[in-house]
Amino acid sequence: MTNVIVTGGAGYIGSHVCKILKKKNINPITIDNLTNGYKSFVKWGPFEKTNLKNYNRLNRIFKKYKPIAVIHLAAKIESEKSVRNPINFYENNISDTITLLKVMEKNNVNKIIFSSSAAVYQIKNKKNFEKDALKPSSPYGFTKLTVENLINDYSKNKKLKYIFLRFFNAAGADSMLEIGERHKDETHLIPLAIDAAYKGKTLKIFGINYKTKDGSAVRDYIHVSDLAISHYLSLKYLIKNNSSQIFNVGFGKGYSVLEIIKLLKKKLNIKYKITKRRKGDNDYLVSNTSKIKKILRFKPTENIHSILDTAINYYKKINGL
Ligand SMILES: NC(=O)c1ccc[n+]([C@@H]2O[C@H](COP(=O)([O-])OP(=O)(O)OC[C@H]3O[C@@H](n4cnc5c(N)ncnc54)[C@H](O)[C@@H]3O)[C@@H](O)[C@H]2O)c1
Question: Domains, the chain, ranges and CATH?
Fold first, then answer.
């Protein structure tokens, strides 16, 4: 079976990627230090617990499995934390990627799919195209843009080919509820809202002074299993075409925080209060998805309703409700 390295494979999105790869007869080798992931999420291939910083260990893992490609999802992910502690983010997300690239080169692995983010875009009030201006508003977004730039520079004089997937907001859970969103320090609206509802707590809404239709931040929610499929299609594309690409991966429709709460209120009893705006948050992030539709023939199959249903069902499952 073909081996592919998945960094961050014990995390939320990475575990869904491993599940789809295995279904397609590809053996996913998870590399993760479990700072934000779970060993129990690694169900579809071997697990190598290590920090990406560890060059020698990475080198041994590459020699052992001889992967044909790397799917690089490992990163620190919370924008607000990155404002408070940027060095941590630069070190983990940028320096560790340099180590990974060196090991890839040493082992003649020249295909990488990198999970970038909508956080690279300059703030504006319309859908983002891949060619739009890039201007991250947080150190987290800056780490994603820097890694895009460094992989691109690196690829110019080497055989390396890449696909950058600029994810919008991953949400929902695997339909069989085997895995789902369970970040150790949760910052995402949907799991926070569900948790608050079940615990009878008041959900904090971070500001209604955004430049959007109802004043709350607008995001583009894409089901995590759809996002996982985009990785498989990217891998197939890289193997067949051996050329680099950048794609937005979103649903292509924006929902404001208040709209998501309205939808959740039909299913759960949610109380909320407005607090001050979080640092590093964008007003409006919605994808134009025409490029990935055209080139990879990728079309999300799940909508906001199945996203919310699977998220609620996964929450109930892990909390024994
Ligand atoms: N969740 C989203 O909505 C979203 C949106 C845009 C981009 N992304 C990107 O997608 C990727 C995955 O996000 P996620 O939500 O699954 O996050 P996650 O925290 O669940 O997964 C990341 C995994 O990487 C591991 N990790 C982090 N640094 C590491 C290191 N130095 N060495 C080894 N392992 C390390 C963590 O333990 C974790 O399991 C990230 O790169 C994130 O920036 C996520």
Answer: 2-171+223-249 (3.40.50.720), 189-219+252-318 (3.90.25.10)
Nearest to 17 by CA among 228, 175, 296, 210: 228
Q: Which of 40, 77, 82, 230 to mutate to test the pocket of ligand 1 (most atoms within 8 A of CB)?
A: 77
Question: Which of ligand 1's atoms lies nearest the C-alpha of 50?
Answer: 33
- Token pair 């730039």 in the structure block, residue: 149
Contacts of 171 (CB under 8 A, 6+ apart): 181, 188, 190, 221, 222, 223, 224, 307, 311
Mean pLDDT of 266-293: 92
> What pLDDT sits at residue 231?
98
Provide the percentage of residues in the chain whose pLDDT is more than 90.
Answer: 90
Q: Active-site residue 154, yes or no? A: no
pLDDT single digits (tens) 283-295: 899 999 999 999 9
